[in-house]
Amino acid sequence: MFTNNEIEQQVAEFLLQIKAIKLQPNNPFTWASGWKSPIYCDNRVTLSHPTIRTYIRQQLVAAIQDKFGSVGCIAGVATAGIPQGALVAQELGLPFIYVRSKPKEHGTGSMIEGDAATTSGKRVVVIEDLLSTGKSSLQAVEALRAAGYDVAGLAAIFTYSFDIADENFKQANCPYVTLSNYNALIKYAEEHQFINEKDVNLLRQWRENPSTWGEMAAS
Predict the structure, then answer these.
(1) Residue 187 contacts residue 203 (beta carbons within 8 Å)
(2) Annotated binding-site ranges for 5-phospho-alpha-D-ribose 1-diphosphate
(3) What span, in angstroms and rounded, lies between the C-alpha atoms of 205 and 210?
(4) Calculated CA dihedral for residues 110, 143, 71, 41, nearest 10 degrees
(5) Beta bridge partners of 154
(6) For residue 3, what pLDDT is reported?
């Protein structure tokens, strides 16, 4: 049985190896929010690597069983959480549904896709690929609760470990678990020469003040 630390480090290694996570402290990315960021994470890349995809699926299942116990349904958050959630549901032999970011603008106008007649009311775990502030994830949680589901919590591959995310999940009374996190990633990246000591300092400064880091880095 792997320890949590071993899983965190292994997932960090995989994400860096396949460039699902890219670190560019001196050439920051721009997020959709407008934030400047020295890190970019796209866990959909893992789906193209069967060995890594299998490892992540198995560890998400183990984390769900350890953290939440018995559940009756798995829900993916559109869009990146859909394939990961479907893989987890298949492994557990459970029904799968997914939650849109907003209601469908045609047809039934559904926000939750799947067989509501057989899944509504079940104890469900929500699957995400990545957590930043948690806002979109918790929007899905609230949609499920409003539709009559009993949300046990959320499981994700990676979190940026923002304090605001912890606060948002606490306020929503929604426990969560992730396979790896920002601190584990930086530790692995430094120990294996993905970044140097100066980069580490920049990356730690960003996590502390992500919304203003770009302004400080430019000054």
Answers:
(1) no
(2) 100, 104, 106, 128-136
(3) 8
(4) 100
(5) 126, 176
(6) 67
